[in-house]
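Structure ticket #2291
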Amino acid sequence: MKKVFAAILLLAFPQILIAQTDEGYKQLFRDKITIEKSGTSIAAVFVDEKGTRFVNFGTLTKDAASEAANAKTVYEIGSITKLFVGVLLADAVKRGEVKLDAPISLYLPKTVKGPTFNGKEITLLDLATHTSALPRLPDNLAPKDNLDPYADYTALKLYDFLSGYKLTREIGSEYEYSNLGVGLLGHILSLRSKMPFEQLMMKRIFAPLGMNDTSLSLVSSRLTKHAQGYNAENKPTPIWTFDALAGAGAIRTTSADMAKFIAASVGIEKTPLAEAFTDARKMYRQGQNSQVKVGLCWNNADLFGTEVFWHGGGTYGFSSYIAIEPKQKRGAFLVNNAGQPTGSVFLESVAFNYLQPKFPIKKSEPARTEISLSKEILATYVGEYLVAEGLSIFITLEGSQLYGRATGQDRFELFSEKEDKFFAKVAGITIAFEKGNDGKVSQLKISQAGNDTPAKKIK
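Resolution: structure written out below.
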């Protein structure tokens, strides 16, 4: 449920591509679906003070008789759910139900022993900013059905994990994206309100915003409006269900309802949640890299002079993205019924390009063919490659898998298509290694969005 690497390189090496018309967007969506075999539909909504603009392309399923997607089509939005939790948290603080700096032990059952480090406890703010030192997922997540990984993760399992987990670093010292952390935060807010999490969301967020087609569970009457999800191999995959960690990614909604969420979040529509939206966007901690800050689940950065807030979402069958610019009162939401690793990168590029045309839209590319290389050949590429001062690409090898990582970023897998050329299945990255006169690898060239950047091997 996360993207990391694309923005840092795209920000550094822009290539302008603007789609201003509905037909321009539809062509981009058509290319994404047909060239990359990425599901069957993409829904988009663009909101500003002049009005709301919906652009839909494709159908709900691959069935020849399937209905066309529209603004009322239901999609999973995965981790965009976390933004709703952030607003819910800000509202709970305003109500006096919780405090940001309060330890989680204050709100959990007395039988639960929350993890500590050097005597310090995790706070609600730590959870909301992904700085709790909790891992991305609990180690006792062992689903009965791997295609629906959160369905049977109960509160009791969550409590068992918390009581037995040992933190490995200082709380608040480092950003590490955690579905566990925000899922726990949603669970705590549910306990404090004395309402089931879905009821809490319905009463305090969905109803006040008029999001009547948004829910966490899926009743049979809405099933016919729900797009079929397709996995990374473009095969049908089941929808997800949640228990204790619903706050991590349980919401399913429509682009029509997300238009309401955007309008409320940027102040176009006046709602009882206006203060909560503003408070949720206050920045508290360093985010995934030096360019990014994080608030109550919102990410924030400067995009060529434009201050944007955003979040991506992904499940096995869906990819989604939302980006807003509160100062200009505008925003965009896009969703694709495909869970491909590169899905949210494309959606991100369209959303960011809408807010700031200097940001390039990622072009669709056909799938690449992998080849196998020996560990001996792969080992020759291991090392540190300097892109610019403060930015390096680190190449590592674990077993027979090569990995890349940029300074301050998560690592990504590299797959070989030639002996000296590799690609990542995220962010549209290609890396080619070059040898010096001595026959040893001397540098790499990283390519993304039509730009090639050399990096000299220094270690």
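Closing remark: The first helix runs from residue 6 to 12.
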